[in-house]
Amino acid sequence: MRVLAQRYARLVDELDIEAEDPILVLPTSEFFPDRFTGDQDSVSLLLSRMLGYAALEDVNVEAVLTGAGSEGEACGTGGCGTGACAPKTAPAGDGPRLEQTADGYLVRVPAAELSHPVVMTARIATALGAIALAERHPRGMELAADPVQAEATAVALGFGVLLLEASYLYSKSCGGPNVQRATALSCDELAGLFALSLAREGHNVKAALAELATTQRAVLKQAVAIVDESRTLVELLKKHPDRVARGAFRLREGGGFLSRLFGKRSASAPAAEEREAAALRALERGASVDELHALVGEADAKAKPKSASKKRAEDDELYSLVDEALGEARRDHA
Q1: What are the pLDDT digits (tens) for 66-90?
Q2: For the chain, is the Cβ count within 10 Å smaller at the N or the C terminus?
Q3: CA neighbor of 328 nearest in space, from 258, 264, 275, 240
Q4: How much is the pTM?
Q5: The domain boundary residue, chosen from 197, 218, 245
Q6: Which residues contact 234 (CB under 8 A, 6 or more apart)?
Q7: Domain check: are 216 and 323 in the same one?
Q8: pLDDT greater than 50 at residue 318
Q9: Between 2-14 and 147-154, two packed helices, what is the crossing angle to 10 degrees?
Q10: Are 197 and 233 in contact (CB under 8 A)?
Q11: Is the domain of 58 the same as that of 203?
């Protein structure tokens, strides 16, 4: 996670991406309301919409559908994931996926990807990440040619869900279950970058999780849990990403607010994320401090009994802290 945090921080710093500026793009009708018919006009409209989301609408970028009528439909399902149905890159002779032209850029979309919307949109997003690097980064096309840098930039621009979905493609193929990956970065790496982006931009984690498949959802939850315990890192990403890029930060300096209120958990206790979610639900239904303590952390069995007056005072203080922090917790678990 340290390496990912430094890479992400370096990108947002050198591309001058303002905190809370990129939007969270989701594969829903809200973000993609246009009817997609698999022709040149549909591909052009899709690219135009994604350019707007990436704040690249001022750059001249054209899309062209290549290899029309070729590959990708041999078994009749359009998505079995192996052999002729596997997601493909542009066929030989169609040229590179992204090309710089005299007046802008050309993005080639292979017809073989039309039946794989996850792959197609993820690779368009990656192309937009490369264009952002070429346009805004001091090292320009040098970094744009690196798919890892382009994918990381696409995540920073708000396309994390699209990239993460394409990183683990499970399907039932003609020969049985099949798993493929249509990204240069692994599922774990993209989840880490995406978790950092969600935290820095203040996006709704629940909305992102709702659009992910089972494996990607589980991996992202793990990454979000690490970032949630690294609040100083998140603040640095917002205000001083250059310091994070240099490695001047710590991971997991502390848990969420309920963990901080009620102390450390035992090794056998549930994961912090699960415990805090359960405690939040209990809090909202009017649970007592003792019940919250039992859910979030164990009392020291060897501690001396407290007097009734001291316990009441501590309870009052805890209730006050809980009231102040409840808004924060609801945002974190929304």
Answers
A1: 886 543 333 333 333 333 334 444 4
A2: C
A3: 258
A4: 0.69
A5: 245
A6: 196, 199, 200, 227
A7: no
A8: yes
A9: 80
A10: no
A11: yes
